[in-house]
Amino acid sequence: MPSLRHGFIATVLSHVRKRSEVDDPEVVRREALDEQAQADTDPSSRATARCDLSRIDGFGFPVHDLSVSGSDPQRTILYLHGGGYISHADRAHWKLVVHLACELDARIVFPAYPLAPEFTWRDSHPQLVALFEQVAIGSPGGVSLAGDSAGGGFALALAQQLAGRPGPQPTHVVLLSPWVDVTCSSPGTAEASARDPSLKLTRLLLAGKWWAGEDSATRAEVSPLFGELTHLPRTLMLCGTLDTLHPQCRDLAARAERAGWDLTYVEARGLIHNYPLLPVPEARRAASEIVRFLT
After folding, report:
1. Are 61 and 114 contacting, i.e. CB atoms less than 8 angstroms apart?
2. How many domains does the chain have?
3. Closest CA to 96 of 84, 79, 114
4. pLDDT, tens digit, for every residue of 119-136?
5. Can you tell me the distance from the alpha carbon of 278 to that of 261, in angstroms, rounded to the nearest whole number?
6. What does pTM read for this prediction?
7. Cα distance between the two ends of the chain
8. Which of 237, 286, 242, 287 is nearest to 265 (CA)?
9. What residues form DSSP beta bridges with 55?
10. Confidence band for 95, pLDDT divided at 50, 70 and 90
11. Which residue segment(s) compose the domain that 41 sits in?
């Protein structure tokens, strides 16, 4: 049964998100661009107080490089944040990756990739393939891919691209409430959206269209649910049942089984979108599952 704190947050979000339906796409576009212009892609000094933080240059957008102060990590997690491809990372993302850095003695590489509607997947996907390959050179313990929501979809799309190339491959993939189909076409999605106190389907569909740009929204780089699922590394996927993306996560799990992909799907009954990033007891349990999986 979900915790009382989770229930409180879900109730608050249900009131806040009532205002997030799309009535005028141009208004949403202007709001997204304004929010991005005002956002600071750097983490707060408080969030990273225990860590050394630097940047990796040469990719056309900020790439943060974080590790616990005084450590010499041999493994790396390349983390792609969520936000519907239209919002930058927030403190919840930084809290999670700092926790993983400390628990796993891992280096965290955290790109602030270009966002829709000004940019599409084409403005960062090739660079992230190159970033992974560069980071892998300096990571004798290997590189894991991880991401939440839109970042989870991006992480899976990246893993698929890498699987089709010679060279280093991720050791693990972690997907938290991943958005793996921007068309949201899995059966039951409309019903799931009606129950979801957080995500709004009209906003998802609009952001997905922006992210695809002039390409088909079912292209694997945009919606990896429709991509090749063989030859992928061991993967952990977490999703709550009170999530608009729950049907597509179930769909991905079923496709994984048919493809012979080693995917562990943890379905959390009654929990909302991106619950592993929320200040709730369920998030602590999710963090422990992630650490065990990556250990």
Report:
1. yes
2. 1
3. 79
4. 999 999 999 999 999 999
5. 29
6. 0.96
7. 28
8. 237
9. 64
10. very high
11. 4-294
